[in-house]
Write a structure and sequence with these properties.
heterotrimer, A: 266 residues, alpha/beta, D-Maltodextrin-Binding Protein, domain 2, five-stranded mixed sheet, 41% helix, 25% strand, globular, B: 220 residues, mainly alpha, MetI-like fold, 9 helices, AA_ABC_transptr_permease_3TM (chain B), ArtM/GltK/GlnP/TcyL/YhdX-like (chain B), transmembrane (chain B), cell membrane (chain B)
Chain lengths: 266, 220, 220
């Protein structure tokens, strides 16, 4: 027993030495990029007919791995797992529509934005919701640990309607809940609206949410600035090479949003 | 050698909320057990004494409850029933799911208890002039309760532990509340470590209370 | 513009295969952790029986923790803790580790009960016949005690097999996770949950049927 413990400890010690080195070297040494994505976020991340991961974020994982000349290991995550996997070092990088909020930046590091979304509701056609004010007194659902959840809870607190809010483990459970009538409106992202409303006959596009656009960034370890630098460069290269527009066109089907923020020098 | 910085401050700040959520856990487990005991008793009696559809109803309930995962049963009461347009609130989902599960397990315990009571005793009670209701409530059930007391205690602990699945159906008992805070602050490990301690304490309280109650109930 | 990509696709026969494969994974993770856990549990049970003072003080409370904290919380905690100390465990391994300890903590009680069910007089008799301590343990205590607690052990096995559904929370694609994935893609919760339930039932029911037959045979 004692031997096993010492062996385990020494393995742990060995590993931790490499962990403290930077991620860029780590990934090159390991030969695989551990890339976290959220797969219940069509068309950005979903599973295709063969139950394989697919989508905009998944392709970005592959592109990043290709740029590093390593293999890629796709790690499917839930929304609330996105930051802990980075903080505990289980993944090297997370794509997954992660909004670069300052609160989150205290825990993990962010690259420059790689995609921009805005929050929009998807409503049950029976609910008669067309504007934000219509939501008063209606049941609202969102996925646990997402930006829409946090922003909505602020509004709900002002209205005193926190009891009408229900969180779910995944975005798809949110859609299912709205379709089945467990909630009147589900908060999601504009890109998801089109595929969702095509899938369900009784779901419609709802109002756009009143908070600011959702600048989403690639997540990496906060302490590892060289890795974050690399990710920044990766984002600019994706745009420069036209790959960004190509993938956006493939999955979302329109002009890719401009990643620059007006009036700010990046 | 740790490459992780622990942050306990947010956890301490929300500690009162977690304790309160612990009471919710205890509450839901107790409610589910109460329902489970009543339904389980009925199922056991149906399985032993009835024939035809009622018996098969009881057998089906018991076998499904015992042979599929509790989490599966919760999903079924959630989105499964939702497909029929029956929408239960997270509270009802977890209460129905837990009661359904507990009833199935308890029914089998009760059945064992009933079978341990010799038929002779019922016959004797009837000879003494009791009707069958009296014979059951005064002779059989008190003895059965004594036999199944320990399994019931076990099941209560089990109900407390199983109520943690509420987190996965959106109900905010201890685990759900923990996960909610963890998702806001991203300190998953710290929050769940504290939740684990609270669960441990709850389980010990349940066991202690059960022992005290046993001393009171089974004095002679 | 490329050909349109479809993000949701209906249920097709391939998916049945996908679920079947996932059921095998459930079986595999259960067999692995039950086997290792049972062996560990037997050893722990023996240790607790033999040296009540020393090992009991250290071992018993540790095993008690595994029984008093929800499995869900244990899984989340361990999965988040392992990488902090540099162990890069995938969901499968994390699941196996926790399920193994969980099984061991349950089997310990069963094994201890088994050893204690063999009367001291019988063990003394076997020693008097010239059997060594180990011979006595393996040729007398194991067959007799093992038979007494076999049904209880089967209970643990079935419990762990169903509880393995919780590993889905870590993202390991076993039966329940696979059904969630399919629900996400096909949006047909009722159909897929029914199939998954049938798979679980098919895994669990034969074993529980066998156990109750076994129990009846030995009760005679």
């Amino acid at each position: 027993m004692k031997k096993i413990i010492t062996a385990l400890l020494s393995i742990a010690a060995l590993n931790s030495v490499t962990v403290t080195a930077d991620t860029l070297d780590d990934v090159a040494d390991r030969g695989t990029l551990r890339c976290g994505v959220v797969l219940d976020f069509p068309p950005i991340g979903y599973r295709d007919a063969n139950n394989e991961p697919a989508g905009f974020d998944v392709d970005y994982c592959h592109d990043l791995a290709k740029s590093l000349e390593v293999d890629v290991k796709i790690m499917p995550l839930t929304w609330s797992e996105r930051l802990p996997v980075i903080a505990t070092g289980r993944a090297d990088v997370v794509f997954g529509g992660t909004s670069d909020s300052l609160a989150r930046a205290r825990t993990v590091g962010f690259s420059i934005p790689y995609a921009i979304y805005y929050s929009q509701g998807v409503v049950n056609s029976k609910s008669n919701i067309t504007s934000i004010d219509d939501i008063r007194g209606k049941r609202v659902a969102a996925a646990l640990g997402t930006l829409p959840e946090q922003e909505w809870l602020k509004i709900a607190a002002k209205w005193g309607e926190e009891n009408l809010y229900q969180s779910y483990q995944s975005e798809n459970e949110v859609f299912l809940a709205v379709a089945q009538g467990k909630a009147d409106i589900g908060l999601t992202t504009n890109t998801a609206i089109k595929p969702i409303t095509q899938q369900y006959a009784n779901l419609e596009a709802g109002p756009r949410m009143p908070w600011v656009a959702d600048y989403t960034s690639i997540v990496g370890k906060r302490q590892d600035v060289t890795w974050l630098n690399y990710l920044n460069l990766f984002v600019t290269h994706q745009v420069r090479s036209g790959r960004y527009q190509e993938l956006w066109d493939k999955y979302v089907g329109s002009d890719a949003p401009d990643l620059r923020i007006p009036g700010v020098m990046y | 050698m740790f490459d992780y910085n622990f942050h306990w401050r947010p956890v301490l700040k929300s500690f009162p909320d977690l304790i309160q959520a612990g009471f919710v856990t205890l509450e839901i487990a107790s409610l589910a057990m109460l329902l489970g005991i009543v339904i389980g008793l009925c199922l056991a009696l149906m399985r032993i004494n009835m024939k035809g559809p009622l018996k098969w109803f009881a057998v089906t309930w018991i076998e499904i409850a015992r042979n599929t995962p509790a989490l599966f049963q919760l999903f079924f009461f959630g989105f499964g029933l939702g497909a029929f347009g029956i929408n239960l609130s997270p509270f009802t989902i977890i209460l129905t799911g837990l009661s359904f599960n507990c009833a199935g397990y308890l029914a089998e315990n009760f059945r064992g208890g009933f079978q341990a009571i010799p038929v002779m005793q019922i016959n004797s009670a009837r000879c003494l002039g009791m009707n069958s209701w009296q014979a059951y409530t005064r002779i059989v059930i008190p003895q059965v309760l004594r036999i199944v007391y320990y399994p019931i205690t076990n099941q209560m602990v089990w109900a407390v532990l199983m109520s943690s699945l509420g987190m996965l159906v959106g109900f905010k008992e201890l685990s759900g509340e923990t996960q909610f805070f963890a998702s806001k602050t991203f300190r998953v490990f710290e929050y769940f470590a504290v939740a684990a301690v609270i669960y441990y304490v709850i389980v010990k309280i349940v066991l202690g209370a059960s022992r005290l109650l046993a001393m009171r109930l089974f004095r002679y | 513009m490329q050909e349109p990509v479809s993000f949701f696709t209906g249920f097709n026969p391939n998916d049945l295969w996908f679920l079947g494969e996932a059921a095998l994974k459930t079986l595999w993770i259960s067999i692995l952790s039950i086997t290792i856990g049972s062996v560990m549990g037997c050893v722990f049970g023996w240790v607790l029986h033999e040296s009540k003072s020393v090992a009991g003080i250290i071992l018993a409370p540790i095993l008690d923790v595994f029984r008093s904290v929800p499995l869900l919380i244990q899984l989340v905690l361990f999965y988040n803790f392992a990488p902090m100390v540099g162990l890069d465990l995938n969901p499968f391994l994390s699941g196996v580790v926790i399920l193994t300890f969980y099984t061991a903590s349950l089997v310990t009680n069963v094994a201890r009960g088994g050893i204690e069910s063999v009367e001291t007089s019988m063990r003394r008799a076997s020693r008097s016949l010239g059997l060594t301590y180990w011979q006595d343990l393996f040729h007398v205590v194991l067959p007799i005690g093992g038979r007494t607690v076999f049904p209880a052990w089967i209970g643990v096995v079935l419990g762990v097999m169903k509880d393995s559904a919780l590993v889905s929370v870590l993202g390991y694609v076993e039966l329940l996770k696979a059904s969630q994935i399919l629900i996400t893609r096909t949006q047909e919760p009722l159909l897929i949950l029914s199939i998954a339930g049938a798979f679980y039932f098919a895994l669990s029911y034969p074993i529980s049927l066998y156990a109750s037959k076994f129990e009846k045979r030995w009760a005679k």
